Amino acid sequence: MSDSEKNKVTVEVHKRKYTVVGEESQEQIKMVASLVDQKMDEIQFSKPSFDTTQLAVLTALNTMNDYLKLKQDYDALVQKERKEDRK
Fold first, then answer.
1. 23-68 pLDDT, tens digit each
2. Cα–Cα distance, 58 to 85 (Å, whole number)
3. Which of 20, 34, 63, 80 has the most CB atoms around its CB within 10 Å?
4. Where exactly are the structural domains of the chain?
5. DSSP line for 56-85
6. Rounded distance, CA 33 to CA 25, Å?
7. 14: left (phi over 0), alpha (psi -120 to 50) or beta
């Protein structure tokens, strides 16, 4: 994908504006930013003393943990499906 085919979107996360450039649709980029913002707000609500860096790191850790759980579930389903197809 060339630069002219990439989407450029300005989003707000934790009261700061960021310009994101990517192949995903503008709606997808905005949705991802909104979810990150929500997770940061959730963590800040439980730990108001955390600074932005701490919030960002904990958000990344939480998100990656969720991703790995989903990936493991997906891999298990694919493996189960393959076993059933062999029967």
1. 999 999 999 999 999 999 999 999 999 999 999 999 999 999 999 9
2. 40
3. 20
4. 3-86
5. HHHHHHHHHHHHHHHHHHHHHHHHHHHHHH
6. 13
7. left
